[in-house]
What does this fold into?
Amino acid sequence: MSGSADKTFYLETFGCQMNAHDSEKVVGTLLQQGYRQVPSVEEAGLVLYNTCSIRDKAEQKVFNRLADYKKYRTQGKQFGVLGCVAQQEGEKIFERAPYVSLVCGSASYRNLPQMLVQLETGGQRVTGLDDRATDKCFETEYTARTNPHRGYITIIEGCDKFCAYCVVPYTRGKERSRTSSSVLEEARQLVDLGYTEIQLLGQNVNSYRDPDGKKSFAELLVAVASVAGIRRVRFTTSHPRDFGRDIVDVIDSVPALCDHVHLPVQSGSSRVLDAMQRLYTRDEYLERIGWIQAARRDISLTSDLIVGFPGETEREFEETLSLMDVVGYDSVFTFKYSPRPNTPALRLEDAIPDAEKARRLAILNDKQKQIGARRNRRHVGQVLEVMVEGKNPARGQWIGRTSQIKVMNFTVPAGVELTTGSYVQVRVTGSFPNSLVGEMAGV
Ligand code: SF4
It folds into this structure.
């Protein structure tokens, strides 16, 4: 390493919002330990790579990246692999990339200060590979927040659902919730830092269980939304099996809770959902959608969809298409099924050829484009509150997001300058499948 007088690190992050927020906490921990963050591998004494294993061939991509780092190994740098691929591959990483000296999964980040000391004193194969056994959360008061508008708060780590295609229960460990008092304390700190929008994070926020036994998830939502200074509260991700009607009730009654629910369905076929071990049927899912659509507020619905799960027939794929019509999603994230290491789905037969998966994905995306266009057209003529996120000088437009998490590009009267993070009223003048356009109508 480059010496204790100037301990420097470079961190590269891949993957989901949870990973991005983990990195904010990892950076905060390193800064607290006297490290300085630098913008390039060249300048760093410690190079960290926070990995994601959700995509096909993720491990291979990690090893390819580590091979890129190899050329620096004679410069006294140390390398560490963090995140899901670290947990999944464990000490095998040292075998394939011997110049790596730290392998640490997310369930062990709370031990980073001790691991850093080991590295600084010449540790060669330092590991943090707590698996499902841990019941501790990564709580730190040192979070180096990078999103200027939205403050993230992890309320629950890990997952106990074991969907057949997913590595998360193995890489992030068992479910463990933070106390509601600690979550509320972090919300208050975010207000002190100037945040007005908060997003509560967890792989499955609906299975939140307050260790203090004080609050259900819906009650926690209300409590966070009631913190003075908070104007918007979002949460992700929900699991249909655990999604309760009480969540819709509180969205209906607490203005600071945003008009948006992300409720991943994955497939519209009950047979495929069963094979995926998703623990709900198409009808049970649609029952929850019915609760949301019966709300007094106009709650936008988004989802995740997988095509080409092993054995998915053409008819079952069409059930997913018909479900999209029935629900009318505002937007969806779509994926081709890809086999992930150590998951139960690996044992299933009837793999779908990649070309067929690609065909189904294209059909699905095309359908969503039409549905998204229809869903967004209904906003034309409405005046919506937008949180300002920035400006596109080339187009002379500002950009922001509505409570429904829709992107709004809008113009302002001549001479008006906005500040990011502020809220304005925007009249919607046009729409596209994935965004709205408008003109500022007031503050
Ligand atoms: S709910 Fe299923 S898909 Fe989501 S993290 Fe848990 S196992 Fe993975």
About this structure: Residues 159, 161-163, 166, 168-169, 203-204, 239 surround iron/sulfur cluster (CB under 6 Å). The chain has a mean pLDDT of 94. The chain has 13 helices and 19 strands.
